[in-house]
Fold this sequence. Notes:
Blueprint: E1 5-6, E2 8-15, E3 20-27, E4 37-40, E5 44-51, H1 56-65, H2 70-79, E6 87-93, E7 98-102, E8 111-115, E9 118-122, H3 129-140, H4 145-159, E10 168-174, E11 186-192, H5 198-213, E12 222-223, H6 226-238, H7 245-255, E13 267-268, H8 270-278
Antiparallel strand pairs: 1-5, 2-3, 2-9, 3-10, 4-5, 5-6, 6-7, 8-9, 10-11, 12-13
Helix pairs in contact: 1-2, 3-4, 4-5, 6-7
Amino acid sequence: MAEPLIATYSIVACDLEAQQWGVSVQSKFLSVGSVVPWAEPHVGAIATQAYANPRYGPNGLQLLREGLSAQEVVDKLTGEDEGRDHRQLGVVDGEGNAATYTGSECMDWAGGRTGTHYAAQGNILVNPETVDALAETFESTSGPLAVRLIDCLAAAEEAGGDSRGQQSSALLVVQRNGGYAGMSDVVVELRVEDHERPIEELRRIHTLHDEIFGVTPRDKWVPVDDELAAELRERLAQLGYDGELEDSFTRWTGKENLEDRVDGIEAIDPVVLKALRRT
């Protein structure tokens, strides 16, 4: 086979209430995020792995756009591929229907399972419990899709993981106009290319990403009373930001790329407050 062998585990999933679709993946393979995950808002999400056929990504999304279901996409892609016995594939469509496929020649342990709004799969795994952990974690958690997908990877690794070890991981979540400045469909796209603990590193950089690009509901912001205003002035002055509070605060948040979480100085986003206190 000419294709790279991607021994990995992944989960493709959606949150229909949030209108988000996503993929998370971990592998003993350099830069797994460059091959496995594909997603498009209101269309679906795809993971292609094992002796991966990367064309399953764009071609599968096109089939989903044409109205095929997740299972129909799996059937068509694998049915037309002479290398199907060596492929592994997971698909969730725009309606939340899920399908998974493991070719008969994929290396043990290999397999997958589906449930409401997700498909989980893996190959060259320590045990089937790895895939079970992906599925059960998704089923038992709530909250932001990106966090749930990382939690699924962590649970799978704890349950056994890739029999060859760890190397890279990736997270992709999409939502129509849900990304940067409301002008991108990519809510989050993060890759850990080569790391001893790629899932932990993925969680770390996702925390940084959420700090800069996430949104805290305004009713969760902290009112800036006299006591908090005094604390802000003191902390900002220690960092070299003197002058009027609003001006110094605005200059500091701009330097830290937190300006999108600022709206005056009457109230402060708790994420920004935590970052200032940490600094």
